[in-house]
Every structure is written in structure tokens, then in C-alpha cells.
Specification:
With about 425 residues, the chain is of the alpha/beta class. The chain is built from 18 helices and eight strands.
């Protein structure tokens, strides 16, 4: 080591595939392998105890290894009986776990396999083919399948259901397909994405019915509130599987829909009157404010007001709950924020060659995103005062006790009733 270090003339001499660190790495590994073999044979090299013991060394063999210091040639010692297998090196493996982690990290950032190949060559002097990189990323597929099919909680207080779109190459053409996602909030306020489902064509309630059916088969017995957009047939699909679920239409989507019919110069005044409708303290007050909105703007913007009348039963669900809960369910922003983080990468990818490639990348992105999800949903648990408190009493919190969670396995309806009561008691 001293000889190597004495040859350094600048910091650059330490790095790169021909640097001092690269040469020291190979020698260090070889020393460790010699020590490992000595431990297995029971004597040091050239020691008298090894004579006529039947356990002799048998030279060395060359082994190529890819590391962040470049491609390294390691001399692996052998024993004459062929019983020694280094624990330090994987059998037949050429890539270190370090290199595989770097490949997965780059892939999860949306870097293409060709660009990863060039990056590894430029930074580390490692020649890794695109096929090898694909093989490395394919190693996560069992994890993708296990995550997608894992058991789910029996009850979710809130679920947000929404889809975003990616490009997929199918039969020599590029199609835009939906990725259906469900973000669940359990009885402790913890967020969990329940899966990624890749569909075909446009977003449809029929496919959502299949997603909800799969959720049920994975252990979900009940959901309390579902926050959704205005997709036709969405409410019917949800209540076909979870008939006691309350469905809340996203207010933000309704506002956007209305503003498409309002001229720019009237939007500020129109929105001010519209806010009075959905920010009303009670259902009765909202109805009165809607009548006032119709009187003021109905002649000019009948189409802008129409969704608020036709979807009245869906968007007014929130008035059955106190303000603290309304703030959690009135919009699907929680899952749309998750989608924004996914789109940062998927929009730069072009078209995926297969649905499996899309699911693989989405899973790696998901793993990176949820590392920060260590705390309950903001504002949880909702209380009468609208603040988050970890010491709120059961009578004012939608969070059930551990004993209640056990009951749901045999009596989901009774727990659902108890949970709804807890949500409503928060208003008192």
C-alpha cells in the first residue's frame, strides 16, 4: 500500500479504472479471499500443518469483476478438492451489488438503458451492454409482483382513486393508455398506494370495477369515503363492491369544468360566487347559495352551473362531515400529487416497449417517493377543532382502536357503522 501511495502525484491518480484505489481494491479482495481459504483449510499458506493433510491449495484462477472503480481482474485461490467457493463473491456473478444499485438508481430516474450504458462507461470505465442493464432491472420484477399482490388492510378510512396516462408501444404503434392508481389512508392516517393497474384506451368505470374487485380479493372489506373525479359510472362501480362507501366528487375538477364555459373577464366574479356554494357551512346554506348563483349567472353561463346541479348528491357528501374531514376529502389532490412525481420521469421516457416495463419503472419510482411518507396524512386525525392531535379521544377521532380493527375481520358492517359514527361525532 505504501508503494502505491508513494506513486501519487495528484488527486487524479487515485481515481478512475487505472487509479490507485482501483489497484488497491483488487489486492484487498485477493487478500480477503486468501484468508477465507486458509480458514476453510485450517492452515496458513506454506504452513507445516498442511502437509499430507489432504487439503491442499491448487493455484488461482482469474475472475473478472465490474465495480465502480472499473473492470477488475481478481485472482481467486483454489483448493485441490474443488470444495472452496468464496462467500465474498457470488457464483458466476460479474457485477457487484454496488453496480446493480447504481443501474437501478439511474433507471428509476428515467435514464434509458442506452444512456446508462454510456454513463457507466464514461464515469467508471465499465462496459455493460444494454441487454445486461435490462437483465439487472428485470431482477426487481418478483418484487413488483409481490407488491402488486400483497394483502391489504381490511378497512381504509379514505381512498383516492385516479388515473394518469403513459405511452405504450403496441403492435408497431404508440398508444396512450391509463395507469389506474389507488391511494388509501388507513385508520392510523398512514398513506399507502395499493397498486398500479395498466389499462387500455381511455379511463373507464368498467376497468375500475375490476380494480375494486381485486382490492376486495386482497383483503379490503370496507372503505369509508372514496374521493374521485367526475368519471361517468364511477360511483356505481365503487358501491357495487363496497355498497356502504360514501363517494365524494372532487370539487377542484368541478370548478375546472365550470370555468371552461366562463369568459376570462367574468371568471373572478363567477368564482367568488361559486366559492360561496361549496364553502357553505351546511348543506342547506349550500343549496341557498346555489340558487343565488343561478339567479346571478344562470342566463349567461347555464352550462357552467349545470354540473353543480346534476352532481349535487355526489359533491355534497362532504357536508355530512365536519370541516376537518371535508379538507381531506373535497379534492383528489393527494393522489394527483403522487401522479405529478411519477410524471416527472415518465414524460421523458417516450413510449414503453411493454406494460411490464412501465410497471417496473413505476414500482422503482414509487419506492423512491414513499421513503418520505413516514408521518400520517397532514391533518390526521381530524378533530372537531380541525387540528391534528395524536392524543384525541376515540369519540372525536375517525381512528379506530386496535380492538375495532380486529372486529372488522368478522363484522365489517358493524365496524363501518361505528366508524361513521366516529366521523360524525367529530362535529359535536
Amino acid at each position: 500500500m505504501q508503494k502505491e501511495l508513494s506513486q501519487a502525484q495528484s488527486l487524479d491518480d487515485f481515481f478512475g479504472k487505472d487509479g490507485i484505489f482501483a489497484r488497491l481494491f483488487a489486492r484487498t479482495i485477493e487478500t480477503m479471499l486468501e484468508a477465507e481459504l486458509a480458514g476453510q483449510l485450517g492452515y496458513e499458506r506454506y504452513a507445516a500443518e498442511g502437509r499430507n493433510s489432504g487439503k491442499s491449495r491448487n493455484g488461482k484462477r482469474r475472475r473478472e469483476l465490474r465495480t465502480s472503480a472499473g473492470d477488475q481482474t481478481i485472482l481467486v485461490p483454489r483448493d485441490r478438492n474443488g470444495e472452496y467457493q468464496p462467500l465474498l463473491l457470488q457464483k458466476y456473478g460479474k457485477n457487484t451489488n454496488e453496480i446493480e444499485r447504481k443501474v437501478l438508481a439511474l433507471y428509476a430516474k428515467g435514464v434509458s438503458t442506452r444512456d446508462i450504458e454510456e454513463t457507466l462507461q464514461e464515469l467508471y470505465g465499465i462496459e455493460v451492454s444494454a441487454a445486461t442493464i435490462t437483465a439487472i432491472t428485470d431482477k426487481v420484477w418478483p418484487q413488483v409482483e409481490a407488491w402488486q399482490n400483497r394483502p391489504l388492510a381490511p378497512v381504509y378510512a379514505i381512498v383516492y382513486l385516479d388515473a394518469f396516462f403513459v405511452k405504450l408501444r403496441r403492435q408497431h404503434r404508440i398508444e396512450t393508455v391509463p395507469v389506474y392508481n389507488v391511494l388509501g389512508v388507513d385508520l392510523e392516517g398512514q398513506r399507502d398506494v395499493l397498486g398500479h393497474w395498466i389499462g387500455e384506451g381511455g379511463e373507464g368505470a368498467q376497468f375500475w370495477l375490476g380494480v375494486l374487485t381485486e382490492m376486495q380479493s386482497r383483503g379490503v372489506q370496507d372503505i369509508l369515503i372514496a374521493s374521485v373525479d367526475g368519471l361517468s359510472g364511477f360511483k356505481e362501480a365503487i358501491q357495487a363492491i363496497f355498497p356502504r362507501a360514501r363517494v365524494q366528487r372532487c370539487i377542484v375538477h368541478l370548478v375546472r369544468q365550470s370555468l371552461r364555459y366562463v369568459t376570462w373577464k367574468d371568471q373572478k366574479a363567477f368564482v367568488a360566487d361559486l366559492k360561496a356554494v361549496y364553502q357553505a357551512p351546511t348543506l342547506e346554506a349550500a343549496a341557498a347559495k346555489l340558487e343565488a348563483l343561478i339567479a346571478a349567472w344562470g342566463d349567461r353561463y347555464r352550462m357552467a352551473i349545470r354540473p353543480w346541479k346534476t352532481a349535487w348528491d355526489e359533491w355534497t357528501t362532504m357536508f355530512d362531515f365536519p370541516n376537518a374531514i371535508r379538507r381531506l376529502i373535497y379534492t383528489t389532490n393527494a393522489i394527483e400529487g403522487y401522479h405529478r412525481q411519477l410524471r416527472k420521469v415518465t414524460k421523458t421516457k417516450g413510449a414503453f416497449p411493454a406494460p411490464e416495463a412501465a410497471r417496473k419503472l413505476l414500482f422503482l419510482l414509487h419506492q423512491d417517493i414513499v421513503k418520505d411518507w413516514t408521518r400520517p396524512l397532514t391533518g390526521w386525525p381530524p378533530t372537531a377543532g380541525g387540528t391534528s392531535s395524536s392524543t384525541s379521544s376515540p369519540s372525536t377521532s375517525p381512528t379506530a382502536s386496535h380492538s375495532s380493527v380486529t372486529v372488522v375481520q368478522s363484522e365489517p358492517d358493524s365496524l363501518k357503522t361505528a366508524q361513521n359514527c366516529n366521523f360524525e361525532k367529530a362535529a359535536s
